[in-house]
């Protein structure tokens, strides 16, 4: 998908009933609706893979909070993506224990295999590569996450096989 | 060998873990599977809640927690009982919140993950006790977004507890009402700072708040709020069940601090892992349990409890790992999970890696942190390339001072300063070697690049 079609798709962004209900349900957990804003961003991201600009006023309206308040939050958190990502997001732990267990070789193997650096997406929209804070898997570093699962230790030689499983 | 799915695991066999000595882990299954409600209750689970809610006052719970001297396991080491005693309560004070800080992101720390993934009901029980002691109306588990498995386990456990009457109206048939919601984060290390966590919980940017007022006075939505770490709360059930004296005695002669600690070791050791041991266990014992250094390399330095603690040397291995002792050595116990550096590894490069982490994770609220940390990274990168300039080390010394306690709203910058300052002290010659000789001519100096190694070169 190229940038133009993405832009057009995001312009017509609406929440379906299920998404709206999920956001309203999240809102009930808190004293103020603003608190559900991160969850609402995640709900949008679940369907689209990322949070298009057009989603921000829609979320603000659903929660009854300011557009700037939602935008401020949406630009702060590292797991809220504000540009399109691939079908699978690879989060590479770059913190101290993985660093001491040669994470840089793993990072280099990933960038070589995928032909992308951090913050980039492969041409076939299959993978996006990002660094992440200590994944709490230090006893088996270097570690990484692909979508919802954590793997470790991952040797540079494991990369080809590991990525094979993601279409 | 191919990469395997990661699952949290304890390195201790069940034969070593006993109810009398291992309050956090004695129930854990040998196969590492999650402990469901039924099995938890069979193994004396929720007994402390039943007992406390029917026979003891909230003040009594606070006093017991204080006497047990459970010190905050998130890294700060503040007495949990003392914190609980400072929560505002009274007829005209609204009931507030109990928040579990499950935002485990400290570099080198993988302990809360084990408790969350394998024993969710211990945390829920601890939260009920904490809420009762603090008159909390409602509880939140603030879980980092990447802990997907823990989120699944906790959601299920919360449902189980609600169905069985441990949460909701009239907890365990008492007059006390309390429920818990799971709140999952969306990244950013700073969310682990308790006031930033409260902002994040409220759906705001995770900037820290000024203190005072402390959360116990005015926290989430202006209500009294208690924020405790996962491991801290998981200690509460055994403290209430067996008493402060018993808890204190767990550490025996090893330390003035009470209880046990989930200790761990990572880095290039033979068998990295996690163990529940009496607080005050030495770094040497941990290193031995981890099978020593990998590939016969010698230990060069170690961080006692995460990326925001100061470097210690091999000569410090025989000191008890407790809050006061490690503090006296000029470092901090932090989370109590050791990270080891071997003789072939560069402390300068590790410090550069740590400062890159802290620079990236700064929320940008305070100037010394927002501007000072990227500056340290650039100086360290230059030294790493052997392109440092005379005065760089002195500038790093100054930055470490300026980033220290008292200059910023929260402990992020002081946490970043600690490994830097201690590395400059213990490994100064490594930094000195990075200064170019002869100094680079002025014409060779280039503007500092705006980006860094995060993008493909």
From TrEMBL, chain A:
Cofactor note: Binds 1 [2Fe-2S] cluster.
Binding-site residues for [2Fe-2S] cluster, renumbered to this chain: 93, 98, 134, 138
Cofactor dependence: [2Fe-2S] cluster
MF term (GO), any: NADH dehydrogenase activity
Recorded catalytic activity of this chain's protein: a quinone + NADH + 5 H(+)(in) = a quinol + NAD(+) + 4 H(+)(out)
Entry keyword set: 2Fe-2S, Iron, Iron-sulfur, Metal-binding
Domain of life: Bacteria
A Pfam family assignment: 2Fe-2S_thioredx
Family membership noted in the UniProt record: Belongs to the complex I 24 kDa subunit family.
Subunit structure: Composed of 13 different subunits. Subunits NuoCD, E, F, and G constitute the peripheral sector of the complex.
Stated name of the protein: NADH-quinone oxidoreductase subunit E
Automatic annotation (TrEMBL), chain B:
Cofactor(s) annotated in UniProt: FMN; [4Fe-4S] cluster
Residue ranges of the region described as Disordered: 435-457
MF (Gene Ontology): 4 iron, 4 sulfur cluster binding; FMN binding; metal ion binding; NAD binding; NADH dehydrogenase (ubiquinone) activity; quinone binding
Enzyme class, broadest EC rank: translocase
Name of this chain's protein: NADH-quinone oxidoreductase subunit F
InterPro entries, per database record: NADH-UbQ_OxRdtase_51kDa_CS, NADH-UbQ_OxRdtase_suF, Nuo51_FMN-bd, Nuo51_FMN-bd_sf, Nuop51_4Fe4S-bd, Nuop51_4Fe4S-bd_sf, Soluble_ligand-bd
Leader peptide range in chain numbering: none
Its biological purpose: NDH-1 shuttles electrons from NADH, via FMN and iron-sulfur (Fe-S) centers, to quinones in the respiratory chain.
Gene3D superfamilies per UniProt: 3.10.20.600, 6.10.250.1450, NADH-ubiquinone oxidoreductase 51kDa subunit, NADH-ubiquinone oxidoreductase 51kDa subunit, iron-sulphur binding domain
Keyword Iron-sulfur: yes
Domain NADH-ubiquinone oxidoreductase 51kDa subunit iron-sulphur binding: start-end pairs: 348-393
The protein's Enzyme Commission number: 7.1.1.-
Pfam families: Complex1_51K (PF01512), NADH_4Fe-4S (PF10589), SLBB (PF10531)
PANTHER family, per database record: NADH-QUINONE OXIDOREDUCTASE SUBUNIT F (PTHR43578:SF3)
Family, as annotated: Belongs to the complex I 51 kDa subunit family.
Catalytic activity: a quinone + NADH + 5 H(+)(in) = a quinol + NAD(+) + 4 H(+)(out)
Keywords recorded for this protein, A-Z: 4Fe-4S, Flavoprotein, FMN, Iron, Iron-sulfur, Metal-binding, NAD, Quinone, Translocase
NCBIfam families in alphabetical order: nuoF_fam
């Amino acid at each position: 998908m190229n940038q133009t079609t993405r832009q057009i798709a995001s312009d017509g962004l609406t929440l379906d009933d299920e998404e709206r209900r999920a956001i309203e349900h999240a809102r009930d957990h808190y004293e103020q609706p603003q608190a559900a804003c991160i969850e609402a961003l995640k709900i949008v991201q679940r369907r689209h893979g990322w949070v298009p600009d057009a989603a921000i006023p829609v979320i603000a309206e659903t929660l009854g909070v300011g557009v700037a308040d939602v935008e401020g939050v949406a630009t702060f958190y590292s797991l809220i993506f504000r540009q399109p990502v691939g079908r699978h997001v690879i989060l590479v732990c770059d913190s101290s224990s993985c660093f001491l267990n040669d994470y840089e070789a793993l990072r280099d193997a990933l960038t070589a295999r995928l032909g992308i650096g951090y913050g980039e997406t492969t041409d076939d929209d299959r993978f996006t590569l990002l660094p992440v804070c200590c994944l709490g898997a230090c006893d088996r570093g270097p570690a990484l996450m692909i979508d919802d699962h954590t793997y470790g230790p991952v040797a540079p030689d494991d990369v080809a096989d590991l990525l094979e499983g993601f279409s | 060998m191919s990469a395997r799915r990661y699952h949290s695991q304890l390195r201790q066999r069940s034969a070593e873990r006993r109810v009398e000595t291992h309050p956090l882990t004695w129930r854990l299954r040998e196969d590492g599977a999650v402990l469901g409600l039924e099995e938890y209750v069979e193994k004396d689970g929720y007994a402390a809640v039943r007992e406390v809610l029917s026979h003891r006052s909230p003040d009594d719970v606070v006093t017991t927690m204080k006497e047990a001297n459970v010190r905050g396991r998130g890294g700060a080491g503040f007495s949990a009982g003392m914190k609980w005693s400072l929560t505002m309560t009274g007829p005209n004070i609204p009931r507030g919140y109990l928040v579990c800080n499950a935002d485990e992101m400290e570099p080198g720390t993988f302990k809360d993950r084990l408790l969350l993934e394998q024993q969710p009901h211990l945390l829920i029980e601890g939260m009920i006790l904490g809420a009762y002691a603090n008159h909390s109306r409602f509880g939140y588990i603030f879980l980092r977004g990447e802990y997907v498995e823990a989120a699944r386990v906790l959601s299920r456990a919360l449902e189980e507890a609600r169905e069985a009457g441990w949460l909701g109206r009239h907890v365990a048939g008492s007059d006390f009402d309390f429920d818990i919601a799971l709140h999952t984060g969306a990244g950013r290390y700073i969310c682990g700072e308790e006031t930033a966590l409260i902002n994040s919980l409220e759906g705001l940017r995770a900037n820290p708040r000024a203190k005072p007022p402390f959360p116990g006075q005015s926290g989430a939505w202006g209500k009294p709020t208690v924020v405790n770490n996962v491991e801290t709360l998981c200690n509460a059930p055994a403290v209430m069940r067996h008493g402060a004296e018993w808890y204190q005695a767990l550490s025996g002669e090893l330390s003035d601090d009470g209880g046990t600690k989930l200790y761990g070791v990572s880095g290039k050791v033979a068998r990295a892992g996690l163990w529940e041991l009496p607080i005050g266990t030495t770094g040497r014992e941990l290193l031995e349990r981890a099978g020593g250094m990998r590939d016969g390399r010698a230990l060069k330095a170690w961080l006692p409890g995460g990326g925001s603690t100061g470097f210690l040397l091999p000569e410090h291995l025989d000191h008890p790992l407790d809050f006061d002792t490690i503090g006296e050595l000029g470092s901090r116990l932090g989370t109590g999970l050791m990270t080891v550096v071997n003789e072939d590894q560069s402390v300068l490069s590790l410090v550069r890696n740590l400062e890159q982490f802290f620079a990236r994770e700064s929320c940008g609220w305070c100037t010394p942190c927002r501007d000072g940390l990227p500056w340290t990274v650039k100086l360290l990168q230059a030294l790493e390339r052997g392109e440092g300039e005379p005065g760089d080390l002195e500038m790093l010394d100054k930055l470490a001072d300026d980033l220290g306690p008292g200059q910023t709203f929260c402990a992020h910058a002081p946490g970043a300063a600690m490994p830097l300052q201690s590395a400059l002290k213990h490994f100064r010659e490594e930094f000195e070697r990075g200064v170019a000789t002869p100094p680079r001519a002025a014409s060779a100096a280039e503007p500092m690049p705006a980006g860094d190694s995060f993008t493909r070169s």
